Amino acid sequence: VCMLCRRAEADPELCGDLQEQKGLCVHVFCLFFANGLFRQPRRQGGLVGFLPEDVRETIWKAAQKDCFVCGKSGAAITCWQTGCDRSFHLPCAAKGRCVTQYISPYRSFCCEHCPEQAVD
């Protein structure tokens, strides 16, 4: 079970592969989108570049937040929009009409603040 999204079964296209190390089990993309986690680009080891102690702290902080989509605790992702406090689990993003940008800097937006693309 991913300790960030709390899902045993999740679409690997959406959440990435499960990584296990030092008592932690998390999806790769759950790490990339989680609040306050910063990848160490030159660091070998850790969980795909994330320090285990930082991941543990993020898991603890996420446990204090409820997902605005499913209502369960452990929401590790908060809308990128300044002032918005909507939090959610990565697997809940699509159901909640959130937008997740799978390119650096890996930002997520709730349905109210999602960016729109201009159409000509």
Automatic annotation (TrEMBL):
<keyword id="KW-0479">Metal-binding</keyword>
<keyword id="KW-0863">Zinc-finger</keyword>
<dbReference type="InterPro" id="IPR051188">
    <property type="entry name" value="PHD-type_Zinc_Finger"/>
</dbReference>
<dbReference type="GO" id="GO:0005634">
    <property type="term" value="C:nucleus"/>
</dbReference>
<comment type="pathway">
    <text>Protein modification; protein ubiquitination.</text>
</comment>
<protein>
    <submittedName>
        <fullName>PHF7 protein</fullName>
    </submittedName>
</protein>
<dbReference type="Pfam" id="PF13771">
    <property type="entry name" value="zf-HC5HC2H"/>
</dbReference>
<keyword id="KW-0862">Zinc</keyword>
<feature type="domain" description="PHD-type">
    <location>
        <begin position="1"/>
        <end position="114"/>
    </location>
</feature>
<dbReference type="InterPro" id="IPR034732">
    <property type="entry name" value="EPHD"/>
</dbReference>
<dbReference type="InterPro" id="IPR013083">
    <property type="entry name" value="Znf_RING/FYVE/PHD"/>
</dbReference>
<keyword id="KW-0833">Ubl conjugation pathway</keyword>
<keyword id="KW-0808">Transferase</keyword>
<dbReference type="GO" id="GO:0008270">
    <property type="term" value="F:zinc ion binding"/>
</dbReference>
<dbReference type="InterPro" id="IPR019786">
    <property type="entry name" value="Zinc_finger_PHD-type_CS"/>
</dbReference>
<dbReference type="InterPro" id="IPR042013">
    <property type="entry name" value="PHF7/G2E3_ePHD"/>
</dbReference>
